[in-house]
Amino acid sequence: MTCHNPPCPAFHISPLTLPGGSSPRLWLSSTSLETKLSHISSCMLEVASVRHKLRKMAEAFEKDQDPFRCSVCLDPLRDPVTIPCGHSYCMSCIRGCWDQEDQKGDYSCPQCRERFSPRPALRKSTMLAELMDKMKTTGIQAAPSAPCYAGPGDVECDLCSERKLKAVKSCLVCLISLCQTHVKPHYNIPALKNHKLVPAFTDLQQKICSQHNKLIEVFCCTDQKCICMLCTMDEHKGHDTVSAAAERKEREKQLGRTKEEFLQRIQERETELRELREAVASYKHSAQEVEEHSYRIFTELLQSIERRRSEVKEQIRAQQKAALKEAEDILEKLEQEIAELRRRNAQLEELSCEEDPVHFIQSFQALQPFVSKTSPGITLNTQLPFEDLTESLSALKNKVEELCKQDMMKISGEVTTTEIILTQEPQTREEFLKYSCQLTLDPNTAHRSLSLSEGNRKVTVGKKQPYPDHPDRFKKYHQVLCEQGFCGRFYWEVEMSLENNTAVEIAVAYKGITGENESEFGMGNDESWCLGCNTVKCAFYHNDDETFISITPMSRIGVYVDHRAGTLSFYNVSDTMTLLHKEQKTFTAPLYPGFSVDDGASVKMCSE
């Protein structure tokens, strides 16, 4: 770059060397002062323009200097290396980072976190090194980064005295966190280069022993606790201790096994999830099919009942038609006979007025055969028409309703126990109470010596009750069944009151044990399962077999039945649920709770 002004003849000024190699010279001669000053002013303006252009070039370069700064130490690259992902670091910085990951055997880029295995070989980047050298020789340095102050959630630098900058590293030896500026000595000072730097974290104090204010680097196997070196000489003296790094290796093995267990559990759960989804789809399909099938069955039942109704209707109408025709024929004959009788009666009236004896005798003899003739009488049916049929239809209705009740109870139980996931048997009283049911005693089954009270929820022995006759009534023993029968899961509790030499029996039974089928042995036959209790013993009875149970003081008994699983369990209910007896059986019909009580004892069903 040269000065465009002609040389000044007056005198010579030392050259001003400008960047780029050009050296414009200013000459001053003995010419007029005005001319000299004009030349000097022009040259100075050109120098200012050159300096401005150089400054712009430097600023433009500074904007693009980030690729030449190490993201670990935040300084210009020293011995730059480029790793496989394309990012560049100081040789010592990236080597230090990867040295800390040797135990894992898994290496990553500090910027993009791309992982490499095995550890990539580090080679100096010749091109970057030459660029960095040129930057140093030309005097162009990387522009300092704008200060990054710590914000909410950031780790603060422990060495910043005024406004805290954001920490980028934590030193596990110094036990402090450092910002970009204060971390530089750890990269430049030899005594600090061996310190272990990690990404800044907030809970640095957790690595310091609260008792000795020393770095925690030992693990006490005896107390399963991380401690410092001084702790091994103090309260943990003589304990089995290892370095934290050694314990980490052991824990990493456990971690690996735990991960395998978790993976296995995940696979098992995924299998269960897949199977459950398939079961749900199958369940929906089956439910749809059964719903359609039940619709067809009930439609056929309704059609069958409608056909039977039409048949009975036609029979009634046919019988009505035949009976009415017979009655109408008889009515017609009666009317004809009455008319003939009236006509003959008129003849008799007329004959009675005949004065001629001969004519009277002859006429009377002619009428005599008809007068002496008698017609059979008519016997009317005094019973209400179709009364027997009405009773038969009512009986049919009752039978159908009872049959439907029994079968619907069974069907309902089968529906409610059709599940996708089989429910485990309850363990706590709260779980049992989920299946609790409200029971009422059936007066139609109660022995006449049993008194029902409190809304048919309590039974005692009292004076003979005026119960009406019923085919389901117990006649031999002081027994009663509940109105409700069950086929699914159900649970109920009773409170019993016993006096000396009195007993109660708590049972489940088929409906068929009542009435004419009443067993000679009462509850506990082949169609009932019974727990008998008195003040000195407790036993289970079924099919005339007796199983003794160790007696404990008890006043409340819980009964749990899973009809489908075929389990029957009796519990002593107090603060806990104590199993008294469990029976496994295939039930073939709905089960009805039942009781037998002695005089002086009582049983009351609990609401909860």
UniProtKB/TrEMBL annotation:
Keywords: Coiled coil, Immunity, Innate immunity, Metal-binding, Zinc, Zinc-finger
InterPro entries: B30.2/SPRY (IPR001870), B30.2/SPRY_sf (IPR043136), Butyrophylin_SPRY (IPR003879), ConA-like_dom_sf (IPR013320), E3_ubiq-ligase_TRIM/RNF (IPR051051), PRY (IPR006574), SPRY_dom (IPR003877), TRIM8/14/16/25/29/45/65_CC (IPR058030)
GO biological process: innate immune response
Coiled coil: 259-354
Molecular-function annotations in GO: zinc ion binding
Keyword Zinc among UniProt keywords: yes
The organism's place on the tree of life at top rank: Eukaryota
SMART domains membership: BBOX (SM00336), PRY (SM00589), RING (SM00184), SPRY (SM00449)
Presence of keyword Zinc: yes
Residue span(s) of domain B30.2/SPRY: 419-608
Domain RING-type intervals: 70-113
Name under which the protein is recorded: Tripartite motif-containing protein 16-like
Organism whose genome encodes this protein: Clupea harengus (Atlantic herring)
Primary gene name: LOC105911689
